[in-house]
Amino acid sequence: MSNQSTLPAAALGVRPVRAFADNYIWLIDAPSEPGSVVAVDPGEAAPVEAELDRSGTRLAAILLTHHHPDHIGGVTRLLERGRVPVIGPDDARIPIRTRTVGDRERCELPELGLAFDILGVPGHTLSHIAFWGHGALFCGDTLFSAGCGRMFEGTPVQMNASLSRLKSLPAETAVYCGHEYTAANLKFALAAEPDNRAARDYQARVAALRGADAPTLPSRIDLERQVNPFLRCDEPALRAAASARAGRPVEAAAEVFGVLRAWKDQFR
Ligand SMILES: [Zn+2]
Predict the structure, then answer these.
(1) 195 CA to middle of ligand 1, Å?
(2) Average pLDDT, the chain
């Protein structure tokens, strides 16, 4: 997969806009057009409008990772401020999109100085995509910090393959997820893998951030490789945990993934 980024990762300006109880809508500053921003997954219009007004910026494009209402629900109202490209996956449940992108295609916004590679990442939903470029990954509800999305439409084999692709992105990739779930995810991660020292250390950092009401995101791919049980399905400790949970030997990574995901669905 090529990524002809013209901009180093640290130079990409991205800020969170909070929506609903725990969603993040990400606003990306357009490198070539100061004052313009691109919104990722605006499930709600009002908080985006408030941030545009506060920062004196204008919306130049909308990127959508999947069809769920908490990711697309604000699009119609945002377009009332002015028509902009709405770029998302091929899915009839996103009728508002103006441009369709799919796996291994490029999403180019040359006038804004932005370009992303598209990764098809089925599992949470079948048409879910992720945007990767400029050292950043916008992955919606596929990968969370220390966790992953619920498997509403895909199979464990599909979702495990999707997460494996994200895991193989460059170590320093900044990971912008759709929800603030990190603290709860770490509780499960440590139940599944109690001896994971990196996850334990991360839990303390996350508690401090949440105590200060600060986002735990973006994460990084190298951190997720260390702390995220759903990216560690080939680790012996997690294979053993999945086998104990299932009451039978569980070997293949996708099968380990399936047991962990079902366990997490029940975990409180
Ligand atoms: Zn979703």
Answers:
(1) 31
(2) 95
